[in-house]
Amino acid sequence: MKNFIKKSTFLLLPLSLQFSFVYAVTADELLQIHKVTTTEMNSITTPQAGSIVFNTTEGTLYFYTGSVWKRLRATGSETVIQAGDNINISGNGSTATPYVIGGQ
Predict the structure, then answer these.
(1) pTM of the model
(2) What SS3 class is residue 40?
(3) Number of domains composing the chain
(4) Where are the alpha helices (DSSP H) in 29-89?
(5) In CATH, what number is assigned to the domain containing residue 38?
(6) Cα–Cα dist 90/88, whole Å
(7) Domain for residue 14, yes or no?
(8) Per-residue model confidence as pLDDT tens for the chain (104 residues)
(9) Strands (E), 28-68
(10) Is residue 83 in a domain?
(11) 59-65-67 Cα angle (round to 5)
(12) Distance between CA 62 and CA 34 in Å, rounded?
């Protein structure tokens, strides 16, 4: 039995040392999101809800809600307004046409 433990330790030690090092991810192992232009994104027929694409025209991620493509995060200095039910938002946030929020 003692001999078996010595042999097992001798065989398992190199294996355990192999996994103790930090693993560096290479470019070949990264997850790649499909890249599309805005025109290509909008021409996808019947996308699945939850689909994600990288829009190369705008340089940002979009996801499909089941009815529309939505930008995943805000970029730059834009204002993001998320409206719930019974809220109407109009305008584009500029000085000429500021956002107007009102109930329906």
Answers:
(1) 0.49
(2) helix
(3) 1
(4) 38-42
(5) 2.10.10
(6) 7
(7) no
(8) 555 555 555 555 555 555 556 778 888 888 889 999 999 999 999 999 999 999 999 888 999 999 999 988 755 666 666 666 666 767 777 777 777 777 55
(9) 35-36, 52-55, 60-64
(10) no
(11) 110
(12) 11
